[in-house]
Amino acid sequence: MRVRAYRFRAYSSKTTARVLETQLEVACKLYNTLLHAEQEEYEKNKRTMSMNELRQLVLDLRKQNKEFQALHSQVAQQVADRFYEARQRFLDGLANKPKKKRSHQYLSLVYPQSGWKLSNWREAGRGKNKKRRARLRLSKIGFFTLIVHRVFPLERVSQVCVKLNSSGRIYIIFVVEESEVGEQQSEGEPKKAVGVDLGITRLATLSDGRYLENPKPLERSLERIMVLQRTLSRKKFLSKNWLKTKRRLAKKHEHIKDFRRDLFFKLGVLLAQEYDLLVLEDLNVQGLIQKGVTRTRRMRLHDSSFSELRALLEWQFVKRGKLVLPVPAYNTSRECFLCGGINKGLTLEDRVFHCPYCGFTLDRDLNASLVLLRRAGWVPPSVPAVELRPIPPLPSLGLKRRHGGAVRQEAPAFRRG
Ligand SMILES: [Zn+2]
Fold first, then answer.
1. Could you tell me whether strands 202-206 and 193-198 are parallel, antiparallel, or unpaired per DSSP bridges?
2. Which of 89, 322, 354, 382 qualifies as a FRET site for 165, CA 20 to 30 Å off?
3. What is the pTM of this model?
4. What pLDDT is recorded for position 187?
5. Which residues surround ligand 1, an ion (CB under 5 A)?
Protein backbone atom coordinates (compact mmCIF):
# COMPACT_ATOMS: atom_id res chain seq x y z
CA MET A 1 0.00 0.00 0.00
CA ARG A 2 1.10 3.46 -0.79
CA VAL A 3 -0.51 6.80 -0.10
CA ARG A 4 -1.21 9.61 -2.45
CA ALA A 5 -2.32 13.08 -1.45
CA TYR A 6 -4.80 15.24 -3.32
CA ARG A 7 -4.53 18.88 -2.39
CA PHE A 8 -7.27 21.40 -3.07
CA ARG A 9 -7.53 25.07 -2.40
CA ALA A 10 -10.28 25.92 0.07
CA TYR A 11 -12.15 29.08 0.82
CA SER A 12 -14.05 29.94 3.93
CA SER A 13 -15.78 32.80 5.61
CA LYS A 14 -13.74 35.01 7.89
CA THR A 15 -15.48 33.53 10.91
CA THR A 16 -14.57 29.98 9.92
CA ALA A 17 -10.99 31.03 9.25
CA ARG A 18 -10.85 32.51 12.71
CA VAL A 19 -12.28 29.35 14.25
CA LEU A 20 -9.62 27.36 12.42
CA GLU A 21 -6.92 29.62 13.81
CA THR A 22 -8.25 29.21 17.35
CA GLN A 23 -8.36 25.45 16.94
CA LEU A 24 -4.79 25.42 15.72
CA GLU A 25 -3.81 27.35 18.82
CA VAL A 26 -5.58 24.81 21.02
CA ALA A 27 -3.97 21.91 19.18
CA CYS A 28 -0.60 23.57 19.63
CA LYS A 29 -1.24 23.93 23.34
CA LEU A 30 -2.25 20.30 23.55
CA TYR A 31 0.94 19.29 21.77
CA ASN A 32 3.02 21.31 24.21
CA THR A 33 1.15 19.81 27.16
CA LEU A 34 1.99 16.32 25.91
CA LEU A 35 5.60 17.32 25.45
CA HIS A 36 5.69 18.63 29.00
CA ALA A 37 4.03 15.51 30.44
CA GLU A 38 6.46 13.32 28.56
CA GLN A 39 9.43 15.25 29.93
CA GLU A 40 8.12 14.96 33.50
CA GLU A 41 7.51 11.26 33.09
CA TYR A 42 11.02 10.78 31.80
CA GLU A 43 12.59 12.72 34.67
CA LYS A 44 10.54 10.84 37.26
CA ASN A 45 10.60 7.28 35.96
CA LYS A 46 13.24 7.33 33.23
CA ARG A 47 10.85 5.96 30.65
CA THR A 48 8.98 7.17 27.60
CA MET A 49 5.25 6.99 27.18
CA SER A 50 3.68 4.59 24.71
CA MET A 51 1.26 5.59 22.00
CA ASN A 52 -1.69 4.29 24.02
CA GLU A 53 -0.62 6.18 27.11
CA LEU A 54 -0.35 9.38 25.10
CA ARG A 55 -3.79 8.83 23.61
CA GLN A 56 -5.24 8.11 27.02
CA LEU A 57 -3.61 11.26 28.32
CA VAL A 58 -5.33 13.25 25.59
CA LEU A 59 -8.68 11.74 26.58
CA ASP A 60 -8.08 12.66 30.22
CA LEU A 61 -6.98 16.17 29.32
CA ARG A 62 -10.12 16.62 27.27
CA LYS A 63 -12.22 15.57 30.26
CA GLN A 64 -10.44 17.90 32.66
CA ASN A 65 -10.07 20.92 30.45
CA LYS A 66 -13.00 22.51 28.58
CA GLU A 67 -10.62 24.27 26.26
CA PHE A 68 -9.43 21.04 24.65
CA GLN A 69 -13.01 20.03 23.97
CA ALA A 70 -13.08 22.63 21.22
CA LEU A 71 -11.20 20.09 19.11
CA HIS A 72 -12.92 17.16 17.49
CA SER A 73 -12.03 14.06 19.52
CA GLN A 74 -10.20 12.31 16.69
CA VAL A 75 -8.31 15.46 15.83
CA ALA A 76 -7.12 15.64 19.42
CA GLN A 77 -6.05 11.99 19.26
CA GLN A 78 -4.13 12.72 16.13
CA VAL A 79 -2.18 15.41 17.99
CA ALA A 80 -1.00 12.59 20.26
CA ASP A 81 -0.05 10.49 17.24
CA ARG A 82 1.86 13.41 15.80
CA PHE A 83 3.80 13.93 18.98
CA TYR A 84 4.47 10.20 19.24
CA GLU A 85 5.85 10.10 15.71
CA ALA A 86 8.03 13.16 16.26
CA ARG A 87 9.47 11.56 19.40
CA GLN A 88 9.95 8.21 17.65
CA ARG A 89 11.89 9.92 14.88
CA PHE A 90 14.08 11.55 17.53
CA LEU A 91 14.65 8.20 19.27
CA ASP A 92 15.54 6.58 15.94
CA GLY A 93 18.12 9.27 15.38
CA LEU A 94 16.31 10.71 12.35
CA ALA A 95 15.33 14.07 13.74
CA ASN A 96 16.00 16.57 16.48
CA LYS A 97 14.28 16.39 19.81
CA PRO A 98 10.66 17.59 19.62
CA LYS A 99 10.53 21.17 20.76
CA LYS A 100 7.87 23.33 22.27
CA LYS A 101 5.90 24.77 19.37
CA ARG A 102 4.61 28.27 18.97
CA SER A 103 1.16 28.75 17.55
CA HIS A 104 2.37 30.28 14.30
CA GLN A 105 4.30 27.05 13.69
CA TYR A 106 1.40 24.72 14.24
CA LEU A 107 -0.56 24.93 11.02
CA SER A 108 -2.52 21.79 10.30
CA LEU A 109 -5.18 19.52 11.75
CA VAL A 110 -5.94 15.97 10.69
CA TYR A 111 -9.32 14.25 10.66
CA PRO A 112 -8.53 10.54 10.51
CA GLN A 113 -11.83 8.86 9.64
CA SER A 114 -14.84 10.78 10.69
CA GLY A 115 -15.74 14.36 11.34
CA TRP A 116 -15.81 15.50 7.74
CA LYS A 117 -18.37 15.46 4.99
CA LEU A 118 -18.38 16.53 1.36
CA SER A 119 -21.61 17.70 -0.17
CA ASN A 120 -23.21 20.07 -2.61
CA TRP A 121 -21.14 19.16 -5.68
CA ARG A 122 -21.54 21.47 -8.63
CA GLU A 123 -19.81 22.35 -11.87
CA ALA A 124 -17.83 25.52 -12.27
CA GLY A 125 -15.83 27.12 -15.04
CA ARG A 126 -16.02 26.52 -18.75
CA GLY A 127 -14.09 24.54 -21.37
CA LYS A 128 -10.54 23.73 -20.31
CA ASN A 129 -11.06 25.51 -17.05
CA LYS A 130 -13.89 23.22 -16.03
CA LYS A 131 -13.76 21.92 -12.49
CA ARG A 132 -16.03 21.05 -9.67
CA ARG A 133 -16.81 22.79 -6.47
CA ALA A 134 -17.86 21.10 -3.30
CA ARG A 135 -18.73 22.03 0.21
CA LEU A 136 -16.73 20.43 2.97
CA ARG A 137 -17.94 20.37 6.54
CA LEU A 138 -15.29 19.84 9.14
CA SER A 139 -16.80 18.99 12.48
CA LYS A 140 -16.30 21.72 15.10
CA ILE A 141 -14.75 24.09 12.55
CA GLY A 142 -17.30 24.83 9.87
CA PHE A 143 -17.79 24.92 6.12
CA PHE A 144 -15.22 25.31 3.37
CA THR A 145 -15.71 25.66 -0.36
CA LEU A 146 -13.33 23.42 -2.25
CA ILE A 147 -12.18 23.79 -5.83
CA VAL A 148 -11.86 20.16 -6.89
CA HIS A 149 -9.72 20.44 -10.01
CA ARG A 150 -8.91 16.74 -10.33
CA VAL A 151 -10.75 13.50 -9.88
CA PHE A 152 -9.96 11.49 -6.79
CA PRO A 153 -11.34 8.30 -5.25
CA LEU A 154 -13.52 9.68 -2.51
CA GLU A 155 -14.39 6.26 -1.12
CA ARG A 156 -10.77 5.41 -0.36
CA VAL A 157 -9.90 8.58 1.58
CA SER A 158 -8.20 7.63 4.83
CA GLN A 159 -7.37 11.08 6.19
CA VAL A 160 -8.42 14.64 5.66
CA CYS A 161 -5.95 17.33 6.58
CA VAL A 162 -6.72 21.02 6.78
CA LYS A 163 -3.72 23.25 6.41
CA LEU A 164 -3.47 26.96 6.98
CA ASN A 165 -0.46 28.22 5.08
CA SER A 166 1.50 30.98 6.72
CA SER A 167 0.41 33.16 3.83
CA GLY A 168 -3.19 32.76 5.01
CA ARG A 169 -4.31 30.39 2.27
CA ILE A 170 -6.22 27.30 3.31
CA TYR A 171 -5.69 23.94 1.66
CA ILE A 172 -7.52 20.68 2.20
CA ILE A 173 -5.50 17.53 1.61
CA PHE A 174 -7.15 14.16 1.06
CA VAL A 175 -4.89 11.21 1.72
CA VAL A 176 -5.83 8.17 -0.35
CA GLU A 177 -4.43 4.69 0.00
CA GLU A 178 -3.55 3.15 -3.32
CA SER A 179 -2.32 -0.21 -4.42
CA GLU A 180 1.05 -0.31 -6.20
CA VAL A 181 -0.35 -1.59 -9.47
CA GLY A 182 -2.43 1.54 -9.98
CA GLU A 183 -0.18 2.84 -12.76
CA GLN A 184 -0.39 1.92 -16.39
CA GLN A 185 2.12 -0.70 -17.40
CA SER A 186 4.75 0.31 -19.92
CA GLU A 187 4.23 -0.99 -23.42
CA GLY A 188 7.29 -2.81 -24.70
CA GLU A 189 10.73 -1.32 -25.25
CA PRO A 190 11.14 2.43 -24.90
CA LYS A 191 11.64 3.95 -28.32
CA LYS A 192 12.59 7.53 -27.68
CA ALA A 193 14.96 8.55 -24.92
CA VAL A 194 15.88 11.99 -23.69
CA GLY A 195 18.80 13.02 -21.50
CA VAL A 196 18.27 16.05 -19.27
CA ASP A 197 21.15 18.00 -17.83
CA LEU A 198 20.23 20.31 -14.98
CA GLY A 199 22.14 23.52 -14.49
CA ILE A 200 22.04 27.01 -13.12
CA THR A 201 22.39 29.06 -16.30
CA ARG A 202 20.07 26.82 -18.23
CA LEU A 203 17.72 25.05 -15.89
CA ALA A 204 17.35 22.06 -18.15
CA THR A 205 19.16 21.15 -21.36
CA LEU A 206 17.66 18.30 -23.34
CA SER A 207 19.71 15.98 -25.49
CA ASP A 208 17.63 17.02 -28.50
CA GLY A 209 19.12 20.49 -28.22
CA ARG A 210 16.22 22.26 -26.62
CA TYR A 211 16.79 24.07 -23.39
CA LEU A 212 14.86 25.90 -20.70
CA GLU A 213 16.29 29.14 -19.42
CA ASN A 214 16.50 29.33 -15.64
CA PRO A 215 13.89 31.88 -14.56
CA LYS A 216 15.53 32.24 -11.13
CA PRO A 217 12.27 33.26 -9.45
CA LEU A 218 13.80 33.81 -6.02
CA GLU A 219 16.68 35.87 -7.28
CA ARG A 220 14.30 38.02 -9.28
CA SER A 221 12.18 38.96 -6.30
CA LEU A 222 15.08 39.05 -3.89
CA GLU A 223 15.09 42.82 -3.47
CA ARG A 224 11.50 42.94 -2.28
CA ILE A 225 11.97 39.91 -0.09
CA MET A 226 14.99 41.44 1.55
CA VAL A 227 13.07 44.61 2.32
CA LEU A 228 10.23 42.61 3.85
CA GLN A 229 12.61 40.45 5.83
CA ARG A 230 14.25 43.56 7.21
CA THR A 231 10.89 45.05 8.12
CA LEU A 232 9.99 41.83 9.88
CA SER A 233 13.15 41.82 11.93
CA ARG A 234 12.30 45.29 13.23
CA LYS A 235 8.90 44.26 14.54
CA LYS A 236 8.38 42.94 18.02
CA PHE A 237 8.46 39.14 17.84
CA LEU A 238 4.96 37.61 17.75
CA SER A 239 3.27 41.00 17.93
CA LYS A 240 0.32 41.78 15.64
CA ASN A 241 2.50 43.74 13.25
CA TRP A 242 5.10 41.00 13.25
CA LEU A 243 2.46 38.45 12.28
CA LYS A 244 1.14 40.74 9.55
CA THR A 245 4.57 41.22 8.02
CA LYS A 246 5.29 37.53 8.37
CA ARG A 247 2.17 36.80 6.36
CA ARG A 248 3.18 39.23 3.62
CA LEU A 249 6.60 37.64 3.42
CA ALA A 250 5.09 34.17 3.30
CA LYS A 251 2.89 35.26 0.40
CA LYS A 252 5.93 36.27 -1.60
CA HIS A 253 7.65 32.98 -0.92
CA GLU A 254 4.54 31.03 -1.73
CA HIS A 255 4.22 32.80 -5.05
CA ILE A 256 7.78 31.83 -5.95
CA LYS A 257 7.17 28.25 -4.94
CA ASP A 258 3.99 28.05 -7.01
CA PHE A 259 5.72 29.58 -10.02
CA ARG A 260 8.43 26.94 -9.85
CA ARG A 261 6.06 24.01 -9.44
CA ASP A 262 3.94 25.22 -12.31
CA LEU A 263 6.97 25.49 -14.58
CA PHE A 264 8.31 22.09 -13.54
CA PHE A 265 4.96 20.40 -14.08
CA LYS A 266 4.67 21.90 -17.55
CA LEU A 267 8.18 20.84 -18.48
CA GLY A 268 7.43 17.35 -17.18
CA VAL A 269 4.28 17.06 -19.26
CA LEU A 270 6.12 18.31 -22.35
CA LEU A 271 8.85 15.69 -21.93
CA ALA A 272 6.61 12.81 -20.95
CA GLN A 273 4.38 13.36 -23.96
CA GLU A 274 7.27 13.16 -26.41
CA TYR A 275 9.58 10.59 -24.89
CA ASP A 276 9.43 7.08 -23.43
CA LEU A 277 12.58 7.15 -21.34
CA LEU A 278 13.97 9.91 -19.18
CA VAL A 279 17.66 9.88 -18.30
CA LEU A 280 18.71 12.09 -15.40
CA GLU A 281 21.83 12.60 -13.36
CA ASP A 282 21.71 11.14 -9.90
CA LEU A 283 22.61 14.40 -8.22
CA ASN A 284 23.44 14.83 -4.58
CA VAL A 285 21.85 18.25 -4.36
CA GLN A 286 22.56 18.83 -0.67
CA GLY A 287 26.23 18.03 -1.22
CA LEU A 288 26.28 20.31 -4.24
CA ILE A 289 24.94 23.18 -2.18
CA GLN A 290 27.43 22.59 0.61
CA LYS A 291 30.22 22.60 -1.94
CA GLY A 292 29.01 25.90 -3.42
CA VAL A 293 31.79 28.39 -2.86
CA THR A 294 30.02 31.71 -3.05
CA ARG A 295 26.81 32.72 -1.38
CA THR A 296 25.26 33.61 -4.71
CA ARG A 297 25.98 30.17 -6.10
CA ARG A 298 24.42 28.49 -3.09
CA MET A 299 21.35 30.69 -3.40
CA ARG A 300 21.04 29.92 -7.11
CA LEU A 301 21.24 26.21 -6.38
CA HIS A 302 18.43 26.58 -3.87
CA ASP A 303 16.51 28.72 -6.34
CA SER A 304 16.75 26.05 -9.02
CA SER A 305 15.26 23.35 -6.73
CA PHE A 306 16.82 20.46 -8.61
CA SER A 307 15.37 17.90 -6.23
CA GLU A 308 11.84 19.10 -6.77
CA LEU A 309 12.36 19.43 -10.51
CA ARG A 310 13.68 15.90 -10.65
CA ALA A 311 10.86 14.53 -8.54
CA LEU A 312 8.21 16.21 -10.69
CA LEU A 313 9.80 15.15 -13.99
CA GLU A 314 10.05 11.57 -12.75
CA TRP A 315 6.46 11.65 -11.59
CA GLN A 316 5.17 12.68 -15.01
CA PHE A 317 6.95 9.70 -16.57
CA VAL A 318 6.04 7.17 -13.89
CA LYS A 319 2.42 8.27 -14.01
CA ARG A 320 2.26 7.41 -17.71
CA GLY A 321 3.95 4.04 -17.15
CA LYS A 322 7.19 5.27 -18.72
CA LEU A 323 10.72 4.72 -17.55
CA VAL A 324 13.10 6.93 -15.60
CA LEU A 325 16.78 6.08 -15.45
CA PRO A 326 19.06 7.91 -13.05
CA VAL A 327 22.71 7.59 -14.03
CA PRO A 328 25.81 8.51 -11.98
CA ALA A 329 26.45 12.20 -12.18
CA TYR A 330 30.21 11.90 -11.81
CA ASN A 331 32.11 13.86 -14.47
CA THR A 332 29.15 14.27 -16.80
CA SER A 333 30.17 17.81 -17.70
CA ARG A 334 33.82 16.95 -18.28
CA GLU A 335 33.39 13.86 -20.37
CA CYS A 336 33.53 14.05 -24.13
CA PHE A 337 30.36 12.71 -25.66
CA LEU A 338 32.13 11.44 -28.79
CA CYS A 339 35.28 9.74 -27.53
CA GLY A 340 34.72 9.53 -23.78
CA GLY A 341 37.87 11.50 -22.95
CA ILE A 342 37.85 13.66 -19.81
CA ASN A 343 38.56 17.34 -20.11
CA LYS A 344 40.09 17.96 -16.70
CA GLY A 345 40.61 21.68 -17.23
CA LEU A 346 36.90 22.48 -17.61
CA THR A 347 35.76 25.04 -15.04
CA LEU A 348 32.30 26.23 -14.03
CA GLU A 349 32.72 29.33 -16.16
CA ASP A 350 33.42 27.49 -19.42
CA ARG A 351 30.19 27.48 -21.38
CA VAL A 352 31.63 25.53 -24.30
CA PHE A 353 33.10 22.07 -24.07
CA HIS A 354 36.22 21.42 -26.05
CA CYS A 355 37.70 17.93 -26.15
CA PRO A 356 41.51 17.86 -25.90
CA TYR A 357 41.63 14.35 -27.45
CA CYS A 358 39.42 14.39 -30.52
CA GLY A 359 38.84 18.09 -30.93
CA PHE A 360 35.07 17.82 -30.54
CA THR A 361 33.46 21.10 -29.60
CA LEU A 362 29.93 21.49 -28.33
CA ASP A 363 27.92 23.53 -25.88
CA ARG A 364 28.77 22.40 -22.38
CA ASP A 365 25.26 21.50 -21.17
CA LEU A 366 24.27 19.86 -24.43
CA ASN A 367 27.39 17.71 -24.26
CA ALA A 368 26.51 16.73 -20.69
CA SER A 369 22.97 15.72 -21.62
CA LEU A 370 24.33 13.58 -24.48
CA VAL A 371 26.83 11.99 -22.10
CA LEU A 372 23.90 11.09 -19.85
CA LEU A 373 22.15 9.38 -22.75
CA ARG A 374 25.30 7.44 -23.55
CA ARG A 375 25.69 6.33 -19.96
CA ALA A 376 22.16 4.99 -20.13
CA GLY A 377 23.28 2.75 -22.99
CA TRP A 378 22.26 4.80 -26.01
CA VAL A 379 24.70 4.58 -28.91
CA PRO A 380 25.84 8.04 -29.90
CA PRO A 381 25.58 9.15 -33.51
CA SER A 382 28.93 10.12 -35.00
CA VAL A 383 27.94 13.76 -35.23
CA PRO A 384 25.06 14.90 -33.04
CA ALA A 385 22.72 16.60 -35.46
CA VAL A 386 21.24 18.95 -32.96
CA GLU A 387 21.42 22.62 -32.38
CA LEU A 388 20.58 24.64 -29.33
CA ARG A 389 17.23 26.32 -29.22
CA PRO A 390 14.98 27.49 -26.42
CA ILE A 391 11.84 25.54 -25.67
CA PRO A 392 9.00 27.28 -27.50
CA PRO A 393 6.54 28.76 -26.85
CA LEU A 394 7.57 30.11 -23.53
CA PRO A 395 4.37 32.00 -22.69
CA SER A 396 2.57 28.69 -22.35
CA LEU A 397 5.24 27.64 -19.91
CA GLY A 398 4.26 30.57 -17.74
CA LEU A 399 7.56 32.37 -18.08
CA LYS A 400 7.18 36.07 -17.72
CA ARG A 401 9.97 38.48 -18.29
CA ARG A 402 10.70 40.89 -15.54
CA HIS A 403 9.30 43.84 -17.41
CA GLY A 404 6.14 42.25 -18.68
CA GLY A 405 5.80 39.47 -21.20
CA ALA A 406 4.96 41.34 -24.35
CA VAL A 407 7.30 43.48 -26.38
CA ARG A 408 7.25 46.86 -24.81
CA GLN A 409 5.88 49.58 -26.92
CA GLU A 410 8.25 52.45 -27.27
CA ALA A 411 6.70 55.75 -26.46
CA PRO A 412 6.60 57.95 -29.57
CA ALA A 413 9.63 60.19 -29.56
CA PHE A 414 8.93 63.81 -28.88
CA ARG A 415 10.13 65.93 -31.72
CA ARG A 416 11.11 69.49 -31.41
CA GLY A 417 10.49 72.09 -33.96
ZN1 LIG B 1 36.59 13.67 -27.50
1. antiparallel
2. 89
3. 0.83
4. 59
5. 336, 338-339, 341, 355, 357-358, 360
